[in-house]
Design brief:
With about 210 residues, the protein is an all-alpha fold. It has eight helices and no strands. Helix 1 packs across helix 5 and helix 3 runs antiparallel to helix 5. The relative contact order is 0.13.
Length: about 210
């Protein structure tokens, strides 16, 4: 399992350097102004689809066939992609939380209750994206599953764009909703991610390659 994880890390280092640089630039820009939710959401969306990019390279290189000759189970092959997704999503979320938390503490960012909603939705969007795309990719392969890939990206990005307007319209505040709902939303995203993980394992174990 460690070998699989390192293999994917090497692939990320080789093929995704420019992507990581772009994500860091967007996160840096998000620290500079008030209208910065797009610059926070975009890195999360990119991080959530990197495992799909790795699957694409695996499929093109024939790794999904070659790996059958190695002492790795199919559940391990699936699990490593979810671990990569979890690490990347958590990493982007921590950086975004630190940036926005500092802004809020300095009195130039969102109010704390609004920040809790923003961070919970950010985590939820990232988890939904990976949770929706990966089972389809493991079921049909990257090429056949590409349509689901585009649909999920459109849905999650649309939700991210609509989120600020939704918050503004319903005027959420700590007195009305508190911090419970944001916590529940984040928990729901984690549960969905775990369910997707289990489903993907069951799908890939039965798939003929």
């Amino acid at each position: 399992m460690k070998g699989l994880f390192l293999k994917d890390c090497y692939m990320i280092n080789k093929y995704c350097r420019a992507v990581f640089f772009l994500m860091l630039v967007f996160l840096a820009v998000s620290a500079a102004g008030d209208d910065n939710l797009f610059f926070t959401i975009y890195p999360m969306m990119v991080a959530s689809i990197i495992p799909t990019t790795l699957l694409s390279y695996d499929e093109k290189s024939g790794w999904n066939v070659y790996s059958g000759t190695l002492p790795y189970s199919r559940s391990q092959l699936v699990s490593v992609k979810y671990l990569i997704a979890a690490v990347l999503i958590a990493g982007i979320w921590i950086i975004a939380a630190a940036i926005q938390g500092i802004r809020t503490a300095a009195g130039v960012g969102l109010a704390w209750e609004e920040l809790s909603w923003t961070l919970s939705i950010l985590l939820l969007l990232g988890l939904i994206s990976s949770s929706g795309i990966l089972p389809v990719m493991f079921k049909y392969g990257v090429e056949k599953g590409r349509m689901a890939y585009y649909i999920m990206i459109a849905v999650t990005c649309g939700g991210g764009v609509a989120f600020p307007q939704i918050i503004e319209k319903i005027n959420l505040s700590v007195n009305v909703q508190g911090y419970l709902i944001p916590v529940l939303l984040a928990a729901a995203g984690i549960v969905l991610f775990c369910i997707s993980w289990i489903v993907s394992i069951k799908i890939y174990v039965k798939r003929e390659i």
